[in-house]
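Q: Structure tokens for this one, please.
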Amino acid sequence: MRTFRIAEIGSPIGRLVVAGTERGVARIVFPEELGALEELADEGEVVEDRRALAPVLRELREYFSGRRSSFTVGVDLSRVREFARRALEATARIPYGSVATYAEVAARAGSPRGARAAGNALAGNPVPILVPCHRVVPAGGGIGSYGGHEERKEFLLRLEGSLEGSLREEPATLGA
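A: Here is the predicted structure, written as tokens:
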């Protein structure tokens, strides 16, 4: 039986719940996705454990304060299947402060004509921020969607300096 260790963290984009396994971070849950914790409970035991997740919580705080541009903690994508995993792995390689299109992600994942499939894979990203799906934008312009919360995507892109009006000059403060 798999054990998911969880902890909450406040952030400028809302309260997040981080869930990790022995392999790494398996899920980052936005406030409106709390049903995802029930899904984890269906797959194994869910235990609150801030100490086990201290490294990722520290790195997230540093990221949101503008002091971290990459993550060193492990990510557990074992629950993600084939093409979606390849799309997430390609997305994880997009550098801080940069963006790529859905078509570019699809091509890097081995399916040059799979932009829509890449978009679907990113919509199901279990570890947003660590796998920076916010860095993927439509080829036709704009920032695109982000789980129905474009303001989160805009905030993250500004934090990283990918949009005009960057937040780099004034680092974000952690919210409740």
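A few notes: The helical segments are 35-43, 54-64, 82-92, 102-108, 115-123, 150-159. The first helix runs from residue 35 to 43.
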